Description:
By secondary structure, the protein is α+β, with helices and mostly antiparallel strands. It is about 45% helix and about 15% strand. The protein starts with a strand and ends with a helix.
Amino acid sequence: MPLSIDVVSDVVCPWCFIGKRRLESALELYRQRRPGAPAPEIAFHPFELNPDLPREGIARADYVAKKFGARGYSAHDRLVNAGAQLGIPFAFDRIKRYHPVEAAERLMALVG
């Protein structure tokens, strides 16, 4: 019986991206240790972390202030370091606005 994995994530969530990379590493280790095992069945399910974002988006500075409060941009340090360890070069400073991800999720459902 193949291993079954359900992944619930937001398409723009950086922690979800880190989790995906870690899952890929774990699956590679699984294949190495169990070469005859059937390939795992992986199902991805959408989840919108910020469903209340306005359709036109929100300025990054406003989003960070609302989401992280006094911690502000320092909350990203741990995230940037975790990403760097996995070869993910997060560049949050290049983000000008945050937008809802509903359209991206619909597109992924069509091609997935």
